[in-house]
Amino acid sequence: MTASVVTIVYVNDAPAAARFYGDLLGMSPSFETPGYITFDLGPGADLALWSGQFENLAPDVPRTSEVCLAIDGGSDQLDVIFGQWQSKGVTILKEPHDAGFGRTFLAADPDGNRIRVAPQD
């Protein structure tokens, strides 16, 4: 059986969200419709942006999940990414700090969805 994991992020405007995530990830979508856009993150993993499922998503509504970008390169690479995201004006929810699994920081997309950057296991 072949399986893949698709992480779905609900957004107000899928094309706008795709531009935001495409810029952060340095990639183009692998599939696009007006309200559903995906990014192929590698074998068995996709990120999907889906609009129209909820009306007027607001950034101030608490979120209980995160998209986690697990990176290679350790703390130095994490700090480089943090600096790049700050210079792009990405909303930072929690600056780089040490957690039980390593150095990490937390950001948000324009719809308030949480994005964690952390070291790859």
Automatic annotation (TrEMBL):
InterPro entries assigned: Glyas_Bleomycin-R_OHBP_Dase, Glyas_Fos-R_dOase_dom, Glyoxalase/dOase/EhpR, VOC_core
Transmembrane segments: none
Pfam families in UniProt: Glyoxalase
Domain VOC: 1-120
The protein's name: VOC family protein
Organism: Nocardia fusca
